[in-house]
Each structure stands twice: as structure tokens, then as C-alpha cells.
Amino acid sequence: MWFQLLLVLFLVATVGCSDAEKSTMVQPHAGSAAISAAAGVLESQAEAAAEVSATQVSLTQLSSTQGSSAELADWVTAARSGSLILRPHDGLPVLPAPALDSEIRISVTGIMARVKVRQRFVNPTDSWVEGIYVFPLPDDAAVDQMRILTDGRVIEGEIQEKEKARKTYEAAKSAGRRAGLVEQERPNVFTTRIANIRPGSEVTVEIEYQQSVRLDNGEFSLRVPTVVTPRYMPGQTEAETTHEPTLHNLEIEVDLVPGFDLDRLESPHHPIIVFDDGYAYGVTLAEGPILADRDFVLQWWPAPGLAPEAAVFSETLGQHSYALIMVTPPFIEAAAHTGLRRDVVFVIDTSGSMAGASLTQAKAAVVFALERLDPQDLFNLIEFNSQTSTLFSQSRVASSSNIEEALDFVAGLEADGSTNIASAIRRALEDPVDSIRVLRQVVFLTDGGIGNETQLLEELKLRVEESRIFAIGIGRAPNSYFMRKLAQLGRGSFTHIGDPAEVAEKMTTLFRKLESAVAADIEIEFSGGGELEMYPYEVPDLYLGEPVLVAVRLDEPFRAATITGWTGDTPWRVEVDERDVLERAGIHVVWARRAIEERMDDRLGTSDKKMLAQLRDEVVELALDHHLVSAYTSLVAVDVTPERYWDETLAPHLMGANLPFSWQPDSAFGFAQGATPAGLQLVLGLLLVATSWALRRAIS
């Protein structure tokens, strides 16, 4: 081990000599201060890092940059794994940046939630720094507010087109002003950049967003991601997505006003304390601050007989009225697709990120499903990691002998390799199916740890045809955006399994959906005249227990609406009117977020440049009008008072993220096994880089 370290040190120092003339000149006192700070911080964190190294990792990007677009893209790519990076301006070495704590405050009224995420960081060095921080949010979050609090100042963000916002930020940074920039990297992953953080100061970043509560099978739920699942990108090796340990604590508080008495209120992944005053419910974490390594999920069920059949939330803004309408179709558990034979294809993720509890949950779910198949059903199993393999060359009847062979196949599954899901999608959908006599239902079980979501969704949209896609997000921090879009494009449904104890309940609910008729041909008629714009454009087929949920913009206040549809051979009709309406701020933001998503979906698989440009312009207009972060707009905040003088440089920093709960670094990223703790290896590695940097400067 020590020989390897010395060899690395020698090689790094040697390489440094060869390019010393190209390096940027730095004042000696800045470099020595940075190294001293590095040694102090690393020494103080070594023990903590070693303790958490078995379950936490973070991307280590130990290089300098002069700020080019390509180099900045590398840093942001690094940060996408979930970290705060204090970015170098002049080639100084990277140092660790500890997070003090995070707070999430959630206010829920009916089916609407307003969430404030506050994260506080400290700059432990004696240098000015720029931070790049990546954080997860729900994939349907409408992000509309950002502010930065530092040194007693509050800097509010404003929405601008993305390129303009970047220029505004860069100009403020160069002028020595405090500035912040929030950009959308993915629909559920956002990046904050913070310029000119004073030495030794504390910085607080606040993000606010609006989202709707999910209702499924009588269960209301809210999911708040706290960690970004590391993503696999085709063409990258596991070594390019490795992580370093950190300690990141989280506090969560919820104010819940459901509008009805509750039968149950619980969180499946965190012990909670509930305060009930008869009208509202307060929720806090029972164990105080927790490690941010899994999604926070809150679930509640109405008391018997009190479940609402309909709810309407409305807001008037300018010349328009906005409404969010939720209606639960009558409960009709009719047989699904009478006369059709089912072909159920199970697609199981066995990549390295599924090692441990995640694969255990996935295997248990498949075993449960296999034992529930009817003998007349067809079925097959597909597993994927770096490669894809199938149980049968084509689907077979669910006879006892075939089921037994499938159970043996499942028992032998092991987690290893990368998450190459594209070939599994092609394999699951490549065989033609006689849709007149056979209904193909494809069930994906994965944590969704991929980075090329757009490419995969385009592939699915091209191939899905008459198949139905059902997605099961495995683990306690799955990529919920990818799960939801798989199901949406595949006209199916999605669910999460975060614990082995949930397998029976979740799979029973899923199979009731697969076996029951869908609510189809759903139409909504609004009273009154004038134009309206509703999302989704067309209400999709709904499975057992799923509600109609639409957002609409009207030219006049909402008065009434009639929702009709068919479940099997049975028609149904539900009416809502102004007596069902509750006024609530922020509905226009939810409507705009759904309008933007529809246009982004329209881009999938489209090569028409004129159409793509038109859709982009529409997204920008919607986002600017409703003050929303999108793929093409960003929030930027600039303090008018300069803080950093032109001759004071910016120094680098890096804070890693927690791994999702139960992730095993060795399996997920290919860490070598050895006697030296991973945390200590990482600390020693950072010290080596700092030392080699000093040698390079001395030689130059």
C-alpha cells in the first residue's frame, strides 16, 4: 500500500515538472494557506470518513481549471453525482467543504405541497471560493424561488433565459459580487453555483418549489428525494463515477392539512413523531437530524368513508383562472381485457448499484409475481447489467415446470456491472405481438441509475406500440422521473418498493391493476365559454385506484366540469362545481410546469428543426411568464455591492454526497478490496494531490 502511494506521488510530481511552464503563477502565501487548510480539514475528517466509507461515496474530480466551457462542463458533470464543489479559479488544489446541515420545510394543503429546501455550508479556508452544488428534487417540482443568505445579506433570484442568466452570473462573479445561479440539469436534478464566498463565512441557499400530492389506491403520498442516485452513462467506466465519503445531515418538518380525518399517517423509511390538533398534523423526524441517503416519503390514508371523490384548487392571476382538478373514478374492479391472453415480461436490473437490499427486493417482487400468474398467461424474464440475457428465447406458457425454471433463474441472479438498459428495452419489445389476442405487459424493476434518460425514452416511444409498460422503482432513492416517464409513455403505471416488507402489499396492488379493466375514453367538459388550455392534452387510461388529475387555464373563473369515462363495459360520470373549489396560491405554477413537460415530451424522437425551435420558444415563454426554472431558463441572483477585490483569487473545494441507502461501493463502482479503509485511502489520496501540487509549484 505505501509503495503504491509513493509511486503515485513520484509520478504526479514528475508529470508536474513537464508542464510546470504551462501552469498559472500563484502568490506563495495563497498556496501555503490552501495546503495548511487542506491538511487541517482532512485530519479532522479522517475518522468520520473512515466510519461512513462503507455506505457513502462521492465523485472525486482532482484537477484544476481555468474556466473554459468544456472544463466547466466536466465540473458540473462531476457535481451531478450530488455534491458541492468549490471551483478553482487559478489552479489551486481541491479541498473538502463540509455541509453544516440541511432543512426541508413542507406545507401540504389537500393535494398541494409547498416546499422550502434550505442548505447551509461553510467555507473553512482562508480563500475566496465559488461553489457548484447539485441537489435532487421531485421530478414534477415547479421551482420558482431561490435566494442566497450570506454575511447578513439576502440575494433574491430572478428568472432569465439560460444563456442570459449565465452571462449575468459570470459578469457578477468577475466583478467580485456575490451571485447565485440555479439551472436544471435534468427534470429532477438541479445545479446551484455560488460566486465569491467569503473566507470562513457561512452560506445558506434556499430553493422553493410547488408540487402536487400523489393519490393511488386510496393512499396519499409525498416523496422528497434527498440524494442524487449516481448515474451510469454509456461509454463511461465505473471508475469515472466514483465517490468520496461525507457527512450530510438533514432535518425535515411537515405541516399537513389534508382536509379530512386520517386513519393512518406514516413514513416507511424514517421514524417520525406526529402532532395532531384535530385539524392539522405536524410531522418531525423522531431521531433528529438524519443522514441524507434515502428519499423521505410521507403517506396518509383517510378515515373510512371520508376519502374525497373530487377536489378542485383554483387561483386567479391576471386575466386567467387556473384550476387543478382531481377526481377518483367509481371503484369498478372488472376483469381486464376479456378474451385477451396476457404476455407478462419481467425486466430485472442486476447492475452493481442493485447489490444488497435492492436486488433482494427485486427478486422477491418477481417471485411474488410469478406465483400469481394464471396457467394460460405467457411470460418471460430478462436481466440486464452490462449485458442482457433472457430466460427463454420467446415467452412461454406459465406452466408449473416453466415457473419452476423461472424461480431457479431468479434465485441465481447477482448484481454486477453497469446499468445498460437500452438493450433490455429493445429485447423486451422486439418480438411482434398479436394485439388482437394477446396483451403484452412489460414490468421493469430497476433503481433507474442511468444518465441518458432522453435517449432511452425516445427508444421506448419508438418501439412501445401496443405494449403496456409498468415500472417498479427499487430501493430508497430511485430515479423517480425515469420510472414515471417509462410508465407514461408505455400507458402503464408505476410504483416504488423501498423495503422487503413492502413487496407483498405493493405487488398485490400492481397485479390488481394488471388484472383489472382500465378507465378509458375519459373526457372533461367545462361549463361556460371562452378558451381553455388543459394538461395533459388527453387524459390517459387509468388503472384501478388512480385518479383523474388535470391542470387547466381558463379565460374566466372555474364554475363546473363534468368528467365521463368507461371502465370495462360500464360507463361512469362525475361532476364538480364551485362548491368543491378551494382557493390556493401557486396553481398557475403547477399548470405551467405541466405545460412545459408536455412540450418537452413532444420533442422526444423529433428531428424537425423548425418544430424543435418552436417548442423551445414556447417553453421559454411559459417559464419566463411563470418564473420557473426549466431546461432553457434559470434563476440568477446578484448582489449590487462588490465584495471580492480583483486581485483576490478564488480557491477550490469539494464536498461529496452520500450514497443511497444500502448501496455497496465495491459493487456499484468497482472499488478494490484491501486492508486499508476506503475513507483513509481517499484522505491519503487528497493529501497526495495537495503535496504534488506544492512540489509542482516549487519546481516551477
Q: How far from one another are the termini?
A: 29 Å
Percent of residues in beta strands? Answer: 25-35%
The CATH superfamily label of the domain at 341-515 reads von Willebrand factor, type A domain
Structural class: alpha+beta
CATH fold category name of the domain at 341-515: Rossmann fold
Number of strands: 36
The main sheet comes to: 9 strands, mixed
The number of helical elements comes to 14
Radius of gyration: 26 Å
Helix content: 25-40%
Poorly predicted spans: 1-69, 78-82, 237-246, 651-656, 662-700
- Gross CATH architecture of the domain at 341-515: 3-Layer(aba) Sandwich
Mean pLDDT: 77
CATH class of the domain at 341-515: Alpha Beta
Shape: globular
Question: How would you describe this structure in keywords?
Answer:
700 residues, Rossmann fold, globular, eight-stranded mixed beta sheet, single chain, alpha+beta, disordered C terminus
Briefly, what is this?
With 700 residues, the protein is of the alpha+beta class. Mean pLDDT is 77; it is low at 1-69, 78-82, 237-246, 651-656 and 662-700.
